[in-house]
Amino acid sequence: MSVTVSCTMTKSKHPSEREIIAAYESGHLQSIKPTGSALKRFKESARGTFIKDRRVNIRLSSPDLMDIQARAAEEGVPYQTLMSSVLHKFVSGQFIAKPSRLARTRGRTAKRRTT
């Protein structure tokens, strides 16, 4: 079975992305298998980056916790994972807020009706 992948170059915003897409589409890129030592290095780096070795207790208002849980459900992740991710992105300068489909009403969350 043959699969053809076509990328629209106009969607790419950066010239280096257009170069990569053009090289892929022309068949100049080849997939390679990493060496054992490189794979070991990648695994160690990933482990060191994402080890959660500290526990933190935090008090939140019930409405805030409910909003966090609702947002996590919206994103399809556990709420503690969402909280950890938000904190990590904030301290590393990568946090970009996006609007939620949920709206807070009188200290509780209520789903907005979309028509």
Structure description:
The protein is mainly alpha-helical and 115 residues long. It folds into two domains: 1-32, no CATH class; 62-111, no CATH class. Helices cover 46% and strands 7% of the residues. The protein is built from four helices and two strands, in the order H-H-H-H-E-E. It has helices at 15-25, 36-50, 62-75, 79-91; strands spanning 102-105, 108-111. Strands 1-2 form a two-stranded antiparallel ribbon. Helix 3 crosses helix 4 (79-91). It is flat. The two termini are 42 Å apart. 1% of the residues are buried.
User: Major sheet: order of its strands?
Assistant: 1-2
Strand content: 5-15%
Terminal residue distance: 42 Å
N to C succession of SSEs: HHHHEE
How does the major sheet shape up?
2 strands, antiparallel
Helix coverage percent of residues?
A: 40-55%
Q: Helix tally?
A: 4
Radius of gyration: 21 Å
Shape: flat
Q: What is the tally of beta strands?
A: 2
Whole-number average pLDDT? 78
Uncertain segments are 1-5, 106-110
Overall domain count: 2
Structural class, by secondary structure, is mainly alpha
What's the structural blueprint in terms of helices and strands?
Elements: H1 15-25, H2 36-50, H3 62-75, H4 79-91, E1 102-105, E2 108-111
Antiparallel strand pairs: 1-2
Helix pairs in contact: 3-4
Summarize the structure in short.
The chain is mainly alpha-helical and 115 residues long.
Which features would summarize this protein structure in a list?
mainly alpha; single chain; 115 residues; disordered N terminus
